[in-house]
Structures are given as structure tokens and as C-alpha cells.
Amino acid sequence: MIGLVLAAGAGRRLRPYTDTLPKALIPVDGGTTILDIALHNFAEVGLTEATIVVGYAAPEVHDRQAALERRHGVRLTLVHNAKAEQWNNAYSLWLAREHFGRGALLVNGDTVHPVSVERTLLAGRGPSILIAVDDVKKLADEEMKTVFDADGRLKKITKRMDPGDAHGEYIGATLIEPYAAPALAEALEATWRRDPNLYYEDGYQEYATRGGEVRGAPIGDVEWVEVDNLADLVRARELTGWQWGP
């Protein structure tokens, strides 16, 4: 199993930080970046290889690759998304299909969370796709909301849902088992070909609609943040004190 980071987006709401850097390289604790936190978490759960899907400001990640490998003890492979500034991340994840075919712990390159999330996913291995879900926080309109059926299988994942109908928020971390990879790649391709502006979560919906097994792993009362704007960045910087703990 490998780590997998989606870090191709432009992050325009985080300017001026993202004038020259991808979101994943924004510092949140001194010189520590969001990408550092992701790679640290991978290393903490025993992963020694990771794939990063890059696009916007990709040379910045290339320039830091060797230093990141030395710092975290994780060998990196970069996959370039040439359409990152035009298309959404369903295409980014599809580009990494040969890599998640080995099994992967996937994290979004703009999410700051403790390593307990990765440990929760690994402890719940069994379903073909297991997604980390926050079923504690109060939801609003922007969150990626989830609904599961009576058997615990994913029924719906979308931002376009009444928060009161949701069972929790997908936080941007997934465990993909190797045997799920071919069908997931097909679902992702169908998704971006239907509309290149769709999210990879829409690919999960396609996979589930086709009969694939997607289940949720509640993360408990855990502090985390998706860094979409400057207020989120302030919150991420408040949280990094615990990020490097157990």
C-alpha cells in the first residue's frame, strides 16, 4: 500500500500564498507545510512510498521532492495533471489509477488532520473503499456530505444536500483496496468524461451506483480543517500543535 496526495489545484481563494505555490506547500507551522503533515502521517503508519498528483505550480513540488523524501523517509513519485487549472479532481485521481492499483491511503492536499485518521482507516480495512467521515461537527452547505444505507454502504455523497439529511462529512481521506482499483478507475473515467468539472467524490458515487462497496469510518471527535480560504489557514495554524503528536 502507498500514500496518495491530490495536490494539483490552484487554490485561488488562498492568494497571495498561492500566487506561486500550490496549496499543499503553504506553511502552517514555521516551515512545515500541509504536504509535510500528510507525508508525516504516512510515515507514522508505516508507509514508505507515496504518489503526489501535481499540476498548478508543479515545479515547486519537483524542487522540494528530494528534501521531502529525506525529511520523511517516504519515496515520492509525481504524477502531472496538465489540466489541473481547467478540470476538477476526478481527473486528477483517475491519472493516478496505476498507483492506487497497489492499494492506497488517499488524502487531499489541502486537509490538515492528525494521524489518528489514517490509523482509523487502516483499522477498518475490509470494504473495497473506506472513507473517513466526521459525524460529530455541525454541517453547512459547503461540506461534502454523505448518506449511508441501513447496511452501512454509501448511498449518496455530494455537497448538494440538505445538511439535515446527511450522516456526516467526508473529510478528504480514503483507503482504497487494490481489488477495488480497476472498477474505481472505470467509474472515475466515466465521471470526468461526463463532466470534467466533477469531483472525485462524484466518482465514488458512480462506483457505488454501479454496485461497488463504499463504507464510512467515523473519525470521532477529531479536530481537522480543509484549507480552502484564509480563515481556514488561520485555523490550520492553530491546530498544528497537536498534529505532530500521537
Using brief descriptors, characterize the structure shown.
246 residues; alpha/beta; 9-stranded mixed β-sheet; two-stranded antiparallel ribbon; 8 helices; 25% strand; globular; disordered C terminus
Fold and architecture overview:
- The protein is α/β, with parallel strands linked by helices and 246 residues long.
- It has helices spanning 34-44, 58-72, 89-95, 97-100, 116-123, 181-194, 200-209, 230-243, and strands at residues 2-7, 27-29, 32-33, 49-54, 75-80, 104-108, 111-112, 129-134, 145-148, 154-158, 168-176, 214-218, 225-226.
- The strands form three sheets. Strands 1, 4, 5, 6, 8, 9, 10, 11 and 12 form a nine-stranded mixed sheet that branches.
- A hairpin with a 5-residue loop joins strand 9 (145-148) and strand 10 (154-158).
- Helix 3 (89-95) runs antiparallel to helix 6 (181-194), helix 3 (89-95) crosses helix 7 (200-209) and helix 6 packs across helix 7.
- The model is unreliable at 242-246 (pLDDT under 50).
Map the helices and strands.
Elements lengths: L1 E6 L19 E3 L2 E2 H11 L4 E6 L3 H15 L2 E6 L8 H7 L1 H4 L3 E5 L2 E2 L3 H8 L5 E6 L10 E4 L5 E5 L9 E9 L4 H14 L5 H10 L4 E5 L6 E2 L3 H14 L3
Parallel strand pairs: 1-4, 1-6, 4-5, 8-12
Antiparallel strand pairs: 2-3, 6-11, 7-13, 8-11, 9-10, 9-11
Helix pairs in contact: 3-6, 3-7, 6-7
Gross geometry: globular
Order of secondary-structure elements: EEEHEHEHHEEHEEEEHHEEH
Average of per-residue pLDDT values: 90
Q: Please report the total strand number as a whole number.
A: 13
Distance between the termini: 21 Å
Q: Quickly give the structural class.
A: alpha/beta
Enumerate the spans where pLDDT stays under 50 for 5 or more consecutive residues: 242-246
Q: What percent strand?
A: 15-25%
In which range does the helix fraction lie? 25-40%
Main sheet specs: 9 strands, mixed
Q: Indicate the radius of gyration in whole angstroms.
A: 16 Å
* Alpha plus pi helix count: 8
